[in-house]
Design a protein that fits this description.
The chain is an all-alpha fold and 225 residues long. Helices cover 78% and strands 0% of the residues.
């Protein structure tokens, strides 16, 4: 039941990736291999879009890694809870670490701090059946749906709508909104660069802006107290 809200989002999102990847020309083994090996929705969409734009392989790989850098922060925050787990378990945990699993696990660990390491690992692996497995199934269903859609039905709109849906709920504070604004403006300014290279300029500018605004707000708050 704890994972139900995530499943309701993962199912259509996974189907959408199957549809978009099929529309990009990937066949069933390629799409499913991509999904199983990468297991990261946002970077999968990014990579497929760049591949569709015939971007160099290095740009595709670096972009996918950049999108997934947040997982490094997730890993760091899980160290106090799972750092003592056996290396084999930690390797599998790294593979199945996605946004939904992390959110479920960290909330459960903080609510039940007395759990043993073995119990924490077991809970995390339990979330896989509630998130990753539905993602695989939804992607497969999306491939079949995508193959049934006529080529005359353009699906290019799916990608920007997906990322808007991902980003919009995160715009909860002034630093987030400032970073998003700079990201949009920067992407438009550097849109003339090939293979989406403008994103590599807009992204750090946006992150610097968000950090700067947050620092400014913290200093302003400190000055008032």
């Amino acid at each position: 039941m704890q994972a139900l809200p995530f499943v309701l989002v993962l199912l259509p999102f996974g189907m959408l990736f199957g549809v978009v990847a099929s529309d990009a020309g990937l066949d069933l083994p390629q799409v499913m291999g991509f999904t199983v090996l990468v297991l990261a929705g946002a970077s999968q969409f990014t990579a497929v879009q760049l591949m569709t734009d015939h971007a160099p392989a290095l740009v595709v790989i670096v972009s996918a890694i950049a999108v997934n850098l947040r997982l490094a922060m997730y890993s760091a925050s899980l160290v106090p809870w799972l750092g003592a787990a056996p290396a084999r378990d930690r390797a599998w945990l790294a593979y199945v670490l996605v946004d939904q699993n992390y959110a479920l696990a960290i909330q459960h660990y903080e609510k039940h701090p007395g759990l043993s390491v073995r119990q924490r690992v077991a809970y995390f692996f339990g979330t896989v059946f509630a998130t990753c497995v539905p993602w695989f199934g939804a992607t497969l269903l999306g491939i079949w749906v995508g193959n049934a859609i006529p080529e005359s039905w353009a699906l290019d709109f799916a990608m920007p709508i997906t990322f808007i849906a991902l980003i919009a709920p995160m715009l909860r504070s002034l630093p987030h909104m400032a970073a998003a604004l700079v990201a949009v403006v920067g992407s438009l300014i550097f849109a003339f660069l090939p293979s989406g290279l403008g994103l590599f300029i807009a992204a750090p500018l946006a992150m610097a802006t968000g950090a700067g605004v947050e620092t400014w707000m913290a200093r302003r708050k400190g000055a008032r107290t």
